[in-house]
Amino acid sequence: MNLNRIKQLRISRAWSQEQLAELSSLSVRTIQRIENGEQASLETLGAIAAAFDIKVAELIAPAEMSENSTPGRALDEQIQAARRQVRSESNFYRGLVTFMIVNVILFVINQVTTPGNHWFFWPLGIWGGLLIFRGLRIFVMRDWLIRLEQARLQKILRK
Fold first, then answer.
1. What is the pTM of this model?
2. Which residues form the HTH cro/C1-type domain (predicted)?
């Protein structure tokens, strides 16, 4: 992280450390520590970048933009995770639309061919149940599954 860059941006806007702390919802002590050379978390950098209305990458020095850069890599990983989540959600909605269209067609076929026998309930129930589980996994249990996976990884790494 380019510590001088943060200080330069703050001074160029004629902000005190207290003002930057208030605008970024951080403590004054955190701003002081960062300007004195301590490592900042990605969330802290994001808050400071938002206060300056710039991207987090602009707060990172070119020397640290290498492959081994922890904040840069963490940001890339978060972006990739967000893309995967959006892709999962869009695939779910596409599957939901397909489910509805196919089951309406099956209902019509069932009513035209054998109105006394309601066989369309079978694909409706099975496919619907699988779709419900998929939706729960994507929207409800996603954070829980991630935390469970991280806890398991940490447990294995400590052995």
1. 0.51
2. 6-59
Taking CA atoms, 63 is separated from 41, 57, 117, in Å, by: 18, 12, 71
| Token representation of residue 129 | 């149940």
Residues 6+ apart with CB under 8 A from 47: 24, 25, 26
Summarised one tens digit per residue, pLDDT across range 72-129 is 666 777 788 889 999 999 999 999 999 999 999 999 999 999 999 999 999 999 999 9
Query: Do residues 21 and 15 make contact, with C-beta atoms less than 8 angstroms apart?
Result: no
Whole-number Å distance between alpha carbons of 158 and 147: 16
Q: Give per-residue pLDDT as tens, 114-152.
A: 999 999 999 999 999 999 999 999 988 888 887 888 888
The dihedral sign for the CA sequence 126, 130, 131, 133: positive
- Residue whose pair of structure tokens reads 């301590």 in the numeric block: 38
The rounded Cα 82 to chain-centroid distance in angstroms is 4
Gap between the Cα atoms of 128 and 103, Å rounded: 10
Closest by Cα among 158, 1, 147 to 71: 1
